[in-house]
Amino acid sequence: xxxxxxxxxxxxxxxxxxxxxxxxxxxxxxxxxxxxxxxxxxxxxxxxxxxxxxxxxxxxxxxxxxxxxxxxxxxxxxxxxxxxxxxxxxxxxxxxxxxxxxxxxxxxxxxxxxxxxxxxxxxxxxxxxxxxxxxxxxxx
Length: 140
Ligand SMILES: [Cu+2]
Fold this sequence. Notes:
Order of helices and strands: HHEEEEEEEEE
Largest sheet: 5 strands, mixed
Bound molecules: copper (II) ion
Number of helices: 2
Strand order of the largest sheet: 3-9-8-5-6
Number of strands: 9
Radius of gyration: 24 Å
Distance between the termini: 42 Å
Strand content: 35-45%
């Protein structure tokens, strides 16, 4: 807590000197910088700079078939996606392409979280029944 503002003040001071050889506005920029940065670095995410909301693809399986038909969804490459499948039958949810499989118990929801790093169009299948329940497009 005490080290951080000092480090920032040093950083800002360095910037001010580098950019405009600044003389008396060093103090003002130092305080604003401390305020803005103080709110953000408290989050402990190390890999992501910002908390990113995943796109949730929700599929409800009734009598072994997707309710309302095959669920179609398009996301952008790099997006975080959560595939949430609620099923009234026990089976295995299989996301093709990414090749992720998760068992689902009857009456339960299984969540498959992944990052859409691979562009293309992918089938989501109830593997045991061989029934397509979802159609995911990842746009490059
Ligand atoms: Cu499959």
